[in-house]
Amino acid sequence: MQRSLTWKDIWQMAPLRISFLIRSVYDLLPSNANWGKKDDPTCPLCHSRQTTERVLSSCKVALPQRRYTWRHNRVLQELASVISTE
Ligand SMILES: [Zn+2]
Its Gene Ontology molecular function terms (predicted)? Predict the structure, then answer.
């Protein structure tokens, strides 16, 4: 997959966004496979190893159930609520 980020883009990001980016690329975000608190590293939906990639976009059960779309829309609703309040 080709990336379009430049060093200039990265240096202009907020620190928390850079942190999320780096942790997502290196699979360091909390998941059942790397959280260290769970004995079972599998995804509760598809029973494959639950990696960051699978959590964010490639679970074969969550995708057809439109769970990613639902999550996306919930984030947009929250942003719209904050913007309308401000
Ligand atoms: Zn899954």
Answer: RNA-directed DNA polymerase activity
Distance in Å, CA 53 to ligand 1 centroid: 10
Ion ligand 1: residues, CB within 5 A, are 43, 45-46, 59
Spacing, Cα 61 to ligand 1 middle (Å): 6
Q: Express each pLDDT in 55-66 by its tens digit.
A: 888 899 999 999
Q: Is residue 52 part of a domain?
A: yes
The answer to whether the Cα torsion of 3, 30, 49, 54 is positive or negative is negative
Residue 44: inside a domain:
yes
Residues in the chain: 86
| Number of domains forming the structure of the chain | 1
Q: 33 CA distance to ligand 1 centroid (A)?
A: 12
Domain with 67 in it: 31-86
